[in-house]
Each structure stands twice: as structure tokens, then as C-alpha cells.
Amino acid sequence: MVERMSEITPPEHGRMRASDADRDSVAHRLREALAEGRLDPDEHSERLDAVYRAKTLGELVPLTEDLPEPSGSGSSPAPTDFRSPRPVYGGGRVVSGQRPTSQAAIALMGGADRSGSWIMPRSFTAVAVMGGVNLDLREARFTERETTIWTYSLMGGVAVIVPDDVQVRVHGLPLMGGFGISNHTPSVVDPDAPIVHIRGIAVMGGVGVEYRSRKHQDEDEE
């Protein structure tokens, strides 16, 4: 692998700092590979995270070396206005004017998940009946600064995962159940950060909120 990379990218070139245009070009190739079925969604997400962590051209090479060259007849150059999702923080998560990608998550004796780079509406509904709903907001964006998640849990559970730059306020009603938030709440939050209100009812079930670091933050810590 090392020999192959050195053939493609000379050492001095590989150490050159990558530009935004370089990263966007690689991200465009990854998006095409996802659309063609060459990458599954998890692989695409992992590589895309690596694209925007890359500081040099050498770090970008392994992300596309197992994909066809863009000069093929089925591929197209990256549009000049193309921008793949980059990590956003605090007030940057509010994207007024964009359409939400999901309005509800319903689990009836099963499971439902929402995660990745998705856009939440002003009001979102999560229903868990003898099942579980998992809402991961670490890469989410919001159509409004204040969002309400209406939760209804009957012998089931709703888990909400949030990053440290989103404020959460819990107002639920537990009946032989529980509403809880982890003790690891952030001490300092951007004053313009999104606010998520969690309301609803839990009957012999539970609604839990947990703060977790994002993927690139985990790797930075390592």
C-alpha cells in the first residue's frame, strides 16, 4: 500500500497542504461512488469525515485510490458550487429556508433510527411502542433555532444523542417510566446554539438524553 501511494503521489507532493477545492473534488468523487453503489452509506460517511480532516494531499490519496478515475465516461467533474457537508457548530447548525429531511420516527415492536447529516424540522415526533427510537443529533442541522421533539413511549424507549454545542431542555411526563439526561452536560455553550426541547410522555418506558462527542472529535482525542 505504501509503495502504491508513493507511485501515485510523490512524497514532496503528498506533504503539500490540501485546499478546500482539493477536498471538495475528493468529496464529489465519493458522492458519485455512493450513487453508483461502489460505497455503502457507512463507508461514504467515514471517508467523507476523513476528507475534511485531511490537512495534506497525501492524506486524501487513500480515500479514492480504490475508485475509478474521474475521466471515465460515466463520471462528471465536480461542479464549482459543490460543497459536501462539513462539520458545523453552534449557530452554524441553523439552516433557515432548507427543507427538513424527516418529520417523525415511529417504532412499533421494532426500531427506528435517525442519524448522520440530516435536517430537523421545528417539530419532530418520536413514537416507541414496545420498541426503540434512536435520534442522533451530532451531525444534524435545524430549520429553526428552537426545535421540539415530541416523544411518546409505551413500554419502549427513545434515546436522543446530542453534541456539546446543542442545548437540551427536558419537559416530559413519566408514568411508571422516566425522562433523564446524562450528567455530562456542557458548561459553556454558544449563545446562538440550537435549543432542543424534549416533551411528551413515557408510560412504563423511558426517554433518555446523552451527550457524546462527534466522530472527528473522538479521533482527535486519540
List the helices and strands and how they pair.
Blueprint: H1 2-8, H2 11-14, H3 20-36, H4 41-51, H5 57-60, E1 104-108, E2 111-114, E3 119-120, E4 123-129, E5 132-136, E6 141-142, E7 146-154, E8 157-162, E9 167-170, E10 173-175, E11 178-181, E12 195-203, E13 206-211, H6 215-221
Helix pairs in contact: 3-4
Q: What features would you describe in this structure?
A:
The protein folds into two domains: 2-63, no CATH class; 90-221, no CATH class. The protein is elongated, with a radius of gyration of 20 Å. Strands 1, 4, 7, 9, 10 and 12 form a six-stranded parallel β-sheet that branches. The protein is of the alpha/beta class. Residues 1-9 and 72-84 have low confidence and may be disordered. It contains six helices and 13 strands. It has helices at 2-8, 11-14, 20-36, 41-51, 57-60, 215-221; strands at 104-108, 111-114, 119-120, 123-129, 132-136, 141-142, 146-154, 157-162, 167-170, 173-175, 178-181, 195-203, 206-211. Helix 3 (20-36) runs antiparallel to helix 4 (41-51).
Query: DSSP strand (E) fraction?
Result: 25-35%
Please summarize the sheet with the most strands: 6 strands, parallel
Number of helices: 6
Query: What's the number of domains?
Result: 2
Class computed from helices, strands and strand pairing: alpha/beta
Q: Rounded to an integer, what's the Rg over CA atoms?
A: 20 Å
Low-pLDDT stretches: 1-9, 72-84
Helix content: 10-25%
Kindly state the number of beta strands.
Answer: 13
- Alpha-carbon distance between the two ends: 23 Å
Overall pLDDT confidence = 81
- Give the overall shape: elongated
